[in-house]
Amino acid sequence: MLVYHVLFIVVLVGTEAFFTALATLNLRHAEQTVAEESTWLRERLGVDDPRELLDYNRLGTALSQLQTWITLVIVLLVLYSGVYADVVAGIEATGWPFVVRGTVFVLGAILALQVLSLPFDVVETFVVEEQFGFNQQTLGLWLRDLVVSLAVMVVLGGVLAAALFAAIDAIGSLWWIAAWLLFVGFALSMQVIYPRVIAPLFNDFEPIEGGDLEDAVREVFDRAGFTCSQLYEMDASRRSSHSNAYFVGFGRTKRVVLFDTLIEQLSIPSLQAVLAHELAHYERGHIWKQLAAGTVQIGVLLFGASLLVEATWLYDMFGVAGQPIYAGLALAVLWLEPIGRFISPLTNRLSLAHEREADAFAVEVADADAMVDALAALTGENLSNPFPHPLYATFHYDHPPIPERIRHIQETAGERSDRPA
Known about the structure:
Blueprint: H1 2-36, H2 38-45, H3 50-80, H4 83-93, H5 98-131, H6 139-171, H7 175-198, E1 205-207, H8 211-224, E2 231-234, E3 245-248, E4 255-259, H9 260-265, H10 268-283, H11 286-308, H12 312-316, H13 325-342, H14 344-365, H15 368-382, H16 390-396, H17 402-418
Helix pairs in contact: 1-3, 3-5, 5-6, 6-7, 7-11, 8-10, 10-14, 10-15, 11-13, 11-14, 14-17, 15-17
């Protein structure tokens, strides 16, 4: 049993130590590169004070690392102090049906993790984001969002957990296949449920009708051969000055959403370029390819979990009596989560290819210079780090770094202009 404990600690602590080292390496690389490229930052990205960009990324990284390590320490304390075994024993002692016991356990874990993250969320919103002028939330709005998000998580988590444990109760060892199918169904349904049910709980969505903006959007749609009657502006500025745009849904449920902060920060040609990029993810089938890749990944991890929960040592390590599978699943997640993090370069590689393809599509449908201007403006406005360390980017970036994207767009535009008419 000692071997399992040593391996468990090495896997969890070693994984976090590796990613902390990566984060530190990334900050040092940024400090050096920002100093070397300060002129480019000012002239191309509009970052008047590069030190502000560095400070923002330092604080964000420090807070994230602090949260990660405190969470890990608390998890280990809960496991090795016997609290985990006691909680499971208490749930088992209720005599409730298996599905109810499992669902209660999952909901309790969700709430515990939310309570644990609460102080860090407060610091991030009202200290870090506030200090750099991004936070627009009042305390009342933040508390409202907290309550609503918890309610959404409890409802969705409860439904999914109940469905999972019902499948386990019904088909036994093949439960992971049912869980796999449940994941696919959930991912597809969220393409419809999220924009129509969940997102409106937090933001207002106004149809973009009439004016130069709608004309510009329709022009991009026509160039791309794309049809979509649902185009919305979202009041993101109520919470943050960060900006973005996204595309969601499929078939008749397609929806394009532009943040009001994005509309304010970008020119019409740049908005067209950003929109063309987002449309490419649908036109080139990226959404379905990403879903397929995610389905394969989750299937492999679920199969691994199905093997782990059958192992008696998994429960014996922490004195969990009766070996209830819901308790084993939580422990299996701790073993498997590092694997998911270390294979992230594989999943990122697919996303990086899709982003380059989407940028090329934007050059074809819109204007290359406008796309470059959009990327520069968004990076500067959001104080994003344009110079990640290559190894850090390999594990964390699913979009190419901004200088690389700009170079790719300009090369693509050059290739197109060199082609004979």
